[in-house]
Amino acid sequence: MPFLFAGLALAVGLYLVLEWWANASTAAAKKALVWGAVVIALLLSVALLSRAGPTFAVLPLIFTGFRLFNITRRVRSFLHSVGLSGKSGQQKRPARPQALSRDEALDILGLQGRPSATEINIRYKTLIAKAHPDAGGSEWLAARINAARDCLMQSLSDE
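User: That's the sequence. What structure does it adopt?
Assistant: Structure tokens below.
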């Protein structure tokens, strides 16, 4: 009989969690996944500690420590700083290029003369759709296109 109540409680709990999950925001869902993994790791380590001794209980605790203290991100950052990130030969370009001259901005957007704000925006939208990182382009190129648009729009407002 106690197993029946435990199973019923587990089913109701699972139902409530799934209902919440269906309506949760992405940020809340990510946070819940991380904390769920931490709780499961802690419960697993307690179970292993009580049955198999401290040797096997260390693994879930290590996982929990990695999640809680962002050790993975720190290790990746360290490896990148010493050149062992696995992306050899790639140069990291600045996310935001230095200020452009008006001629450089015109050249980047493929415009000539004194384009209007509409012409600048049409050309900008065409190029950024192709060069955006989400569309397979590079961050550096998208940043250059953004800087070119900003420069030309600033020169229009200065006139």
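Helices lie at 2-23, 26-52, 54-68, 71-81, 102-109, 117-131, 139-158.
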